Amino acid sequence: MGIMPDSRSLINLRKELHKFPELSGSEEMTSRRIYEFLGKLGPDRLISDIGGTGVAAGFGSANSGRRVMVRAELDGLPVSESNDFDYKSVRDGVSHACGHDGHMVIALGVAQYFASERPGRGELIVLFQPSEENGKGARKVINDPAFSSLQPDYVLALHNLPGFDQNELILRNGVFSMASVGMIIDLKGKTSHAAEPENGISPSNAVSIILRELPLLAERDEFSHFTQATIIHAKMGEVAFGTSPGQAVIMATLRAYDDGEMKKLISMADRMARDIAFQERLDISVHWTEEFPATVNDKFLNRLTCKSGSSFGCKIRYIENAFRWSEDFGWFTGKYRGLLFGIGAGKGHPELHNPDYDFPDDIIETGINVLCKASGELLNL
Ligand SMILES: [Zn+2]
Ligand SMILES: [Zn+2]
Fold first, then answer.
1. How far, in Å, CA of 343 to CA of 107, rounded?
2. Which-ligand-closest: CA of 99?
3. CB-hemisphere CA count at 13 Å for 34?
4. 353 CA distance to ligand 1 centroid (A)?
5. What is the pLDDT of residue 3?
6. CA-CA distance, 64 to 3, in Å (whole number)?
7. What is the CA radius of gyration of the chain?
8. Which helix (H) or strand (E) holds 177?
9. Residue 114: is its pLDDT beyond 80?
10. Which ligand sits closest to the CA of 352?
11. How far is the CA of 52 from the centre of ligand 1 (A)?
12. Alpha-carbon 2 to chain mean position
């Protein structure tokens, strides 16, 4: 263990994937590229179109045992890349600004390893899921009938994390990253002439109350952990100085430590918006989108990964507070024993989702090694 299967070809592929990023739900080219790569490794099974563009490959054994899954993500982001190296994104306004290009080649490296060192028992699955960034992919994959033959006993994933030393492993027992959901509030009143606003029903008062009060909800004592409501968008009426508006929309992102607290926050936000609309004589509809459950890590898998990392000389950091951001890996940890761990991308490295972000190739080898070792031990349990 500790051999890097074929670093040069993996790094080249990483750059190629970086150059041609695709948005959530339309990862066709990326998915095809991954499928071809996996096909050449001679897996025991290779499945495409899971949950949309998802791909999975299995490396098994004649002896029955546990099924261990390593999961990576296929999608890029609607971010305009500001880098100017030769593998810069060729797609305007789309880039691999979350490093999923790097996570993909790490999972491919794991596949290369288990293609040549077949498990003694059980099965190793590498899964490439679509649409992580909008929270839809993991759920779709899990609910796809094709996934029923892939049900894992353990599921592992990593995410590169700028702000931490390169190759440092970041772990936490229990909640690793929080739950979040998008809230869309549509208010409907009645348009009127701006000279006679009393003849219409303007949502302006309700909008101003909601913009002020919604973020304050999260500060109530009912919550025992970090909770947050962030207004991300608001629009009312049209730009027409002769018209008093008759409709408005407000969007907010709600965050909560875990799924229980999220449930509470959702019902409080919903109730508040409806009460205000009622007072202002407005019709209201509330929609929810981009739902991410909290990612909750398994203690045993944490210990195992910590051990694997230490054996390769990685610094290990157990963080005190869960990350506020969300990961749709939470759909997996809600159903299976799972672990999402962080791997440091470098202290001064550009932040995730930023225009100048690029995945650091120097952490590919560590990612592969730690995942191979941890998976290997799980298969041998
Ligand atoms: Zn992201
Ligand atoms: Zn990501």
1. 14
2. 2
3. 38
4. 6
5. 54
6. 27
7. 23
8. strand 174-177
9. yes
10. 1
11. 19
12. 28
Please tell me the distance between residue 331's alpha carbon and the centre of ligand 2 in angstroms: 14
Domains of the chain: 7-177+294-379 (3.40.630.10), 179-291 (3.30.70.360)
The tens digit of pLDDT for each residue in 3-46 reads: 556 788 999 999 999 999 999 999 999 999 999 999 999 999 99
Q: Say which amino acid occupies 234.
A: A
The Cα angle at residue 62 between residues 61 and 66, in degrees rounded to 5: 55
Cβ-based neighbour number of residue 130 at 10 Å: 30
What is the number of the ligand closest to the CA of 353?
A: 1
Ligand 1 centre to CA of 76 (Å) is 8
Rounded distance between C-alpha atoms, residue 71 and residue 150, angstroms = 12
Q: What is the mean pLDDT of residues 186-208?
A: 98
**Number of CB atoms found within 10 A of residue 58's CB:** 21
Q: How far is the CA of 99 from the centre of ligand 2 (A)?
A: 6
Give the ranges where 160-298 is alpha helix by DSSP (H).
204-217, 259-279
